Give the backbone structure.
Amino acid sequence: MKKLTFGCLLGLSAALVLTSCGGNGGSEAKNDSVAATSDSSAASVTKDWKIGVQLWTFHEAGPFVTSIAKTDSAGVKYVEAYPGQPLGGDMKDTFGIRMSPESRAKIKQLLQSKGIQIVAMGVITPKTLDEWRQYFDLAKEFGLSYITAEPLKSQWDGIDSLAGVYGINVAIHDHPRPNAYWHPDSVLAAVRGHAHIGSCADVGHWTRNGLDPVECLKKLEGHVYGVHLKDVDSAGNTKANDLVVGTGVIKFAPIFEELKRQHFKGMFSIEREGNWQNNVPDVINTVKFYNDQVSKL
């Protein structure tokens, strides 16, 4: 062992004094570090969230091209398309697997000009796996992340295999009772053993079904691919009226908190099913509400 010189002893004493006096400062620094890490964690989760519009919101106001114009005017850059919507403009067909090559090219050009991306499409219920394959082809062509559907039970194995091949998930949607998927347990039955099948969580319909959206999300943890964002005027009433998000009976803060806890990565599709002819302001207000809620996480 080396002997300590006088200088070394002085240095050691000074270090001990500084450590003693700076005890609280060290704790505060540690707390600041933890807080910074927590804030960073929240930001890293919500940066993967998208706020978009289910184009059904605008279906009574006009065709696909009109819906995209309304989406653009609301300042939204992500959409969930729905098959069967007339395209409009000089296009005679509808959005879906039977679109002509010319219409597909024009739709891509329109989306690019507006800086808008189709993230998902639905809700679909194809009758055959061959029809499913055509929808997967369409989804791949437009770069979709998932397909929203209410598939036939006999198709679960087949569509899970196709989803794996295409790298595009299937998100099961929940309509009100007596729909086959009204309860999260029925969605979980489809999820088991199928790595590419999950949930499109419609929080408004869950509320209409008398279910707690947060408890439903907990049941489906790890399997939520997308969310339909809507509000209603009463719970447990399958005919409850649609309201602007944040003005009805649904408590959204715990919904966002639960999805943050689950490290959800996906899109919130605003689906305003009311005020059909003039609901762009409703969409804008929903985006503001969403941004305010997310900023508090």
About this structure: Residues 1-39 have pLDDT under 50 and may be disordered. The chain has eleven helices and twelve strands.
